[in-house]
Design the sequence.
């Protein structure tokens, strides 16, 4: 009888999980089979089965592309800077929100910082382009204060900063949800015991809060590092212009502009496969380092 009840309970759980499993199977795993066209001269009319095989010709073409190293450098820089400044931002915001005593004010602040996540990059890009352009609000205020005008969106030395800062502004609030959930699981008795021992707020944060957040931080970092070469193509396309193409062209915009629009499916798949291999190597490598140094890892 107990075995029947256990099997029935497991069956109910499997039924609940089935839609999610089917989603990942159909839209995540089955499409992986399409990576085979990276080794073909794929023809949309002939299909995968009848398109001619070319081996590593698409990869040779990618590495032989005259601007390949420039695009690769831009992708790495954008990914590293986004990780360097974007990864700690939601952690800091979550810690600050956790210190707020007024629940009403905390909810208002959370709502305000969450809202940009739900705006499309077309809206966000239009707002910031108008703010940061040569005749924008920021330069208008700067000129009235006697400061020189700077067109932040069309200058190579400021374009990367615009991408990173706007990305953080849009997603930092949404990124705090996971950390706030982790913070809510900390036993309040630990803070009370620390206060009895004379620990201040900074000491409590170092000795209690951050150690409890460490597993979440490690998982988020490892998941993020695998996408270090993946840029938000919508964001970059909104801000990208001919004046900053040498510093703003990344793999994703190159694939969209010269690959998908031109119907070069095998070539663009080879680039995506190259990015995926680098991401896998980084995840496995940093996972091993994290397991040895902090004891935390994905597996």
Sequence:
């Amino acid at each position: 009888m107990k075995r029947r009840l256990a099997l029935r309970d497991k069956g109910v759980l499997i039924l609940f999980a089935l839609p999610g499993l089917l989603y990942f199977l159909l839209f995540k795993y089955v499409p992986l089979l399409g990576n085979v066209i990276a080794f073909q001269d794929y023809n949309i009319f002939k299909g995968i089965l009848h398109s001619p095989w070319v081996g590593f010709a698409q990869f040779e073409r990618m590495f032989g592309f005259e601007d390949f190293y420039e695009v690769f450098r831009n992708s790495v820089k954008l990914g590293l800077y986004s990780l360097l400044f974007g990864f700690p931002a939601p952690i800091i915001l979550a810690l600050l929100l956790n210190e707020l005593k007024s629940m009403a004010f905390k909810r208002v602040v959370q709502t305000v910082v969450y809202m940009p996540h739900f705006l499309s990059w077309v809206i966000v890009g239009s707002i910031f382009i108008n703010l940061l352009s040569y005749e924008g609000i920021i330069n208008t205020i700067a000129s009235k204060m006697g400061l020189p005008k700077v067109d932040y969106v069309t200058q190579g030395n400021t374009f990367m900063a615009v991408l990173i800062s706007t990305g953080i502004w849009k997603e930092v609030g949404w990124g705090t949800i996971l950390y706030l959930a982790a913070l809510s699981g900390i036993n309040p008795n630990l803070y009370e015991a620390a206060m009895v021992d004379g620990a201040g707020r900074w000491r409590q944060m170092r000795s209690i809060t951050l150690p409890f957040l460490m597993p979440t931080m490690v998982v988020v970092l490892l998941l993020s590092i695998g996408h270090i070469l993946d840029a938000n193509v919508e964001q970059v396309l909104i801000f990208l212009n001919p004046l900053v193409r040498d510093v703003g062209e990344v793999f994703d915009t190159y694939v969209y502009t010269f690959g998908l629009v031109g119907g070069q499916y095998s070539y663009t798949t080879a680039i995506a496969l190259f990015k995926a291999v680098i991401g896998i190597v980084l995840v496995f490598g940093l996972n091993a380092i994290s397991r040895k140094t902090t004891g935390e890892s994905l597996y």
About this structure: Residues 6 and 12 are 10 Å apart (CA to CA). The mean pLDDT is 87.
